[in-house]
Amino acid sequence: MANSNGNFIKRKRSANWDALEKSLLKSCMKEFVSIIENKNTDTNTNKSKTIAWQKVMKSFSELNSRVRELAEVKQQWRTMKLDAKKNMSQVKTSIKCTGGGPKPLSPDPETIDILSMIPQEFETDSNVFDSDSITNPVVQSQEQSLVNTPTQDYFITPGDNNENVQENITPLPLKMPTEIVRRKRKLTFNDVNDNKYTAKREERDLTRERNHILVSCIKEEHGLKMKNMLEAHNFIKEEHNLKIQQMLLEKEETQLRVEKLKLEILLLKTNLPQ
After folding, report:
1. Among 70, 61, 79, which Cα is nearest to 24's?
2. pLDDT, average across residues 58-82
3. Cβ neighbours, 10 Å, residue 24
4. Higher pLDDT residue, 161 or 33?
5. Region of 259 on the Ramachandran plot (φ > 0 left; ψ -120 to 50 alpha; else beta)
6. pLDDT tens digits for 94-129?
7. What is the tens place of the pLDDT at every residue in 204-229?
8. Calpha distance 221→27 (Å, rounded)
9. What pTM value is reported for the model?
10. Taking 70 as the threshold, does the pLDDT of residue 249 lie above it?
11. What is one Pfam family matched by this protein (predicted)?
12. Which of 61, 107, 150, 269 is found 20 to 30 A from 219 (Cα to Cα)?
């Protein structure tokens, strides 16, 4: 950074953010995140954002032990969002990998907290023609319709040569899937793929449910931590007030002793012979 004279001035580096400060910032942001993350840029929205940041800064400064500027708080919030998006991108990449290798990554608690606060920032587009979009409802309905379509088997009788093979193909009666008795047949490649996709869907459902439970547990743990922090803060504040009262009492006692000594000196002076 250069000043008016062209000389470079070293930028002042702020102190690193610890996990407790980040957790406190998230708890202060929860109430105003819908206003701050509003994508509109009109005058009223910008005023609301400014007021929301001021309230966040006030709550954060009252509970935090380290002094922070508003620019530092805004930059830290942007950094936390970028880190959460990067972590979710790595998780999605590891889930889409084929078999083998280590276990797929899971989002860390901080990413899950930010995901629950601003889910619109983590939405992804779905495509019917994308092979990875297995959970798309349109694809599921198409797969279901393919499974429920009737199939027709054919019986080929041996001919005299290869030219009359088409003439000796005899269609067998249609067999609807609703019939009770079905002819046993070997699993085809499509059946194997359907079973594989079904297993993947079930695994994704279980993963989604596990993540939901994990988010609930993390939220509850975060609430308990914040409650303990507030209690500790109140205890420290009360202890500080008691120390101040004790110092005032000691000061008053000292003044009384000084006055007592003055009176004793004056009494001795009056008792001395002239």
Report:
1. 61
2. 91
3. 20
4. 33
5. alpha
6. 777 766 667 777 888 888 888 888 888 777 655 555
7. 888 888 888 988 898 888 889 899 89
8. 12
9. 0.44
10. yes
11. Myb_DNA-bind_5
12. 61
Tokens of 220: 């509850």
The torsion angle over the Cα atoms of residues 75, 79, 82 and 84, rounded to 10 degrees, is: -130
pLDDT at 242 over 50: yes
More confident residue, 140 or 102: 102
Residue 56's CB is within 10 A of a number of other CB atoms, namely 23
Closest CA to 219 of 122, 112, 126: 112
**3-state secondary structure labels for all residues of the chain:** CECCCCCECCCCCCCCCCHHHHHHHHHHHCCCHHHHCCCCCCHHHHHHHHHHHHHHHHHHHHHCCCCCCHHHHHHHHHHHHHHHHHHHHHHHHHHCCCCCCCCCCCCCHHHHHHHHHCHHHHCCCCCCCCCCCCCCHHHHHHHHHHHHCCECCEEECCCCCHHHCHHHEEECCCECCCCCCCCCCCCCHHHHHHHHHHHHHHHHHHHHHHHHHHHHHHHHHHHHHHHHHHHHHHHHHHHHHHHHHHHHHHHHHHHHHHHHHHHHHHHHHHHCCC
